[in-house]
Amino acid sequence: MTRRRVGLAALFGAALLALAVEPVAAQPSASTTVEQIWDLNMNLLYVAIPITVLVEGILIYTVWRFRKQDEPLPTMENRRLEITWTVATAIILLFVGVASYQVLANPYVTAEAQGANIQQENPEHIEIQAYRYGWSFYHNGSSFSNEAQATSTGTLRLPVDRNVKLRVTSRDWLHAFHVPSLGLKADAFPGQYNRLTTKPTETGTYQLYCAEYCGSGHSQMLGEVVVMPQDEYDQWVQQQAQSSQSGNQTSQSGNQTSQSGNQTTGTPQGTQTAEGNETGTPQGTQTETPQGTQSGQATQTAQPTQSGEATQTPQTTGTAQATQTAN
């Protein structure tokens, strides 16, 4: 009767542990990174649950079995038992170490070193810049050395079923790029790049957080990661590139118009008028002043001769008008 109760208690404990494991097993795999991490967790749980049940069962049995012995005699030596639990512990630790190394050494899980160059098939390169309090994303295409083909703020777009390399940095302060649903997390330091590699496997919208306290607006430093089909992603990048190119052309046209206006308004002033005076007209045209401002200009007058013809003799007057008189 008592053994049956002990067995029932052990089964009840195992059932509780199984219920605790079920939510973990039901987590969706939205990326290769998440899939690797959850597989490791499940493998470790499959080992940890039997060990936990065994240890707790032995503890419960011991408490119940020797409950009436106030002064039990301690076991002085049991070499076989010591060898058994030492070997079993070594095997368990070896399994945990090998399984963990295989996952943690995977570039989809562990952040790459700044100088690392892991070759992958046709990855998309995206630079992430954190600032207080927001995110900017630069899609560089096939290499980080390329000029950004598309830029966005607040929303990061990724192609599904394609390798993506992320380069994370900061403009001003310490931040941390964190997307729990995709298993992504990397610190963002000014002047330094931390690299992540992932492969989204499910389309959808996922929440982006800053996981490093960065000031009064830290709680508002949120964003979104949108995973979309490859054709939609290519179309979006093309639209962004065309929009950026159109904006650059408009800016260049505006600069040329401004330079042309500066050249028009910059014509030399002080042109000469018909009377030889200098005026300050901005357009640089010749004007004819009605009055002369300089004295000593020549006027022409007609003097009578004996033959009745009019002759012209220059006289110096202070007027600018030329008159002809006939006597």
TrEMBL record:
Residues 121-239 form the Cytochrome oxidase subunit II copper A binding domain. Residues 238-327 have a biased composition (Low complexity). Its EC number is 7.1.1.9. Residues 236-327 are annotated as: Disordered. The chain crosses the membrane at residues 42-64, 85-104. The keyword Transport applies. InterPro entries: CcO_II, CcO_II-like_C, Cupredoxin, Cyt_c_oxidase_su2, Cyt_c_oxidase_su2_TM_dom, Cyt_c_oxidase_su2_TM_sf. Keywords: Copper, Electron transport, Membrane, Metal-binding, Respiratory chain, Translocase, Transmembrane, Transmembrane helix, Transport. GO terms for cellular component: membrane. This is cytochrome-c oxidase. It comes from Haloarcula limicola. The lineage of its organism: Archaea, Methanobacteriati, Methanobacteriota, Stenosarchaea group, Halobacteria. The gene is coxB.
